[in-house]
Amino acid sequence: MTPDASRPRTLAIVSSSRADMAHLIHPLRALTDSPLIDPVVMATAAVLQPEYGDSARRFHEEGFRVHPVPCDLRIETGFDAAQAIGRATIAFADAFDALRPDLVMVVADRFEMLAPANAALAMRIPIVHVEGGERSEGAIDDAVRNALTKLSHLHLVTTREAERRVLAMGEEAWRVHRVGAASLDHLLADQIPDAEALSSRLGFDRELPMILAAIHPVTLADDPGHDAAQLLEALERVPDETNTIIFAFPNADEGSLEIRSAVSKFITKRRNSFMHTTLPPETWLGLLHRCELVVGNSSSVLMESPSIPTPAVCIGERQAGRERARNVVDVAADADSILLAFERARSLDMNEITNPYGDGHASERIRRVLEEAPERERLLHKSTTLVEGPGA
Predict the structure, then answer these.
(1) Percent of the chain as helix, strand, coil, to the nearest 5
(2) How many Cα atoms sit within 13 Å of 58 on the Cβ side?
(3) How many CB atoms lie within 10 A of CB 271?
């Protein structure tokens, strides 16, 4: 059944972290132009917190409708995270009751995305999940992502392998759509700043080779900050006068404060090292163009770097199982091994790198899927497709 075109469907798009910006800006632009969809950003958690850069401001500047859902998700332990999910579920129930959306969109695998998904499911609001079917076996994100898949009613996946995995979880084929990663749309649609503009904006010496670092807590590890500690130990051996080092801010997870503190101590001892709370998508991609290599355990190390292409070093187990292109060197979280991986990455052949995450046209596909989405009752009534296993 084609949706009633007399009234656009209200789509509540939940944004809870700075990383969402790269994945949502271009879909929001495409959906804002649609006569069938009325998108509203439901900004919450770190997106509203000044210490994480107040990313909601960018949504306002773009002219998008923003509905704040204040919820303090500052956490330092798993107990904090569990309580935060409960508080956020109540906050989103109130927000959905006020807004009355027709659809709710949740992104990727952050633990706080369980809150709007739980509230929407209980309130019989169909859920659209972006970037399901991927893997990151070293973090609780992996379980969260799979839980969101089973709670959701439409799936906008990035890769062929992710599509197969969602289908293997029993989701009906008509619900699963391979659209690619919307973060890559910035490469085709935006003006990426050059080295001079980046240097002026961020204050680094553009004559020096650059190492770009994105390191987050490993939430399944006994020591969530181990990857970061080993990376910093490796970088201590990189002479300050030979390289600029730029760190992205770590995610708001257990262990984040310790990582921020350790990076802050590192950069105070070095003239050419910096940490930035917010690196907008265009700036991040500009830095990927400018740097000699990108290192860390963030999905962004794997997802965007092949499109440049930039040599990448993926540290530890946080992104275990996630698809990667030939530009990526995997390495254990050990300082000596990380330094050796830097040299291996620098020597990689960067010709004919293919990015498995898409072609920069995800937003138009997302718009088309949502415009053509079935009516509410069909979306809500799910059947599980049995997948024959070895013991069947």
Answers:
(1) 45, 15, 40
(2) 23
(3) 11
Q: Give the span between the Cα atoms of 280 and 19, in whole angstroms.
A: 9
Q: Residue 391: which pLDDT band, with cuts at 50, 70 and 90? A: low
Where do we find the tokens 């254990």?
332
Using CA atoms, how far apart are residues 314 and 150, in angstroms rounded to an integer? 29
SS3 state at 363 = helix
Instruction: Say how far apart CA 107 and CA 125 lie, in whole Å.
Output: 16
Regarding whether 336 and 374 lie in a shared domain, the answer is no
Same domain for 207 and 323: yes
Same domain, 328 and 371: no
Same domain, yes or no: 175 and 153: yes
Residues 333 and 372 in one domain: no
Query: Backbone phi, then psi, for 268, in 5-degree steps?
Result: -70, -20
Closest listed residue to residue 348, CA positions, set 390, 314, 303:
314
Q: pLDDT for 164-220, tens place per residue?
A: 999 999 999 999 999 999 999 999 989 999 999 999 999 999 999 999 999 999 999
Q: How many domains does the chain have?
A: 2
**DSSP helix/strand/coil, 68:** strand
Helix (H, G, I), strand (E, B) or coil at 341: helix
Q: Note whether 314 and 293 are within 8 A (CB).
A: no
In a domain, 39, yes or no: yes
pLDDT of res. 1? 37
Same domain, 165 and 27: yes
Give the range of the structural domain holding residue 202, as residue numbers without chain letter.
Answer: 193-346
Q: Where are the beta strands (DSSP E) in the chain?
A: 9-15, 37-44, 66-69, 103-107, 127-130, 154-157, 176-178, 210-214, 244-248, 273-276, 293-296, 312-315, 328-331
Do 150 and 201 share a domain, yes or no?
no
Does this model's pTM top 0.85? My answer is yes
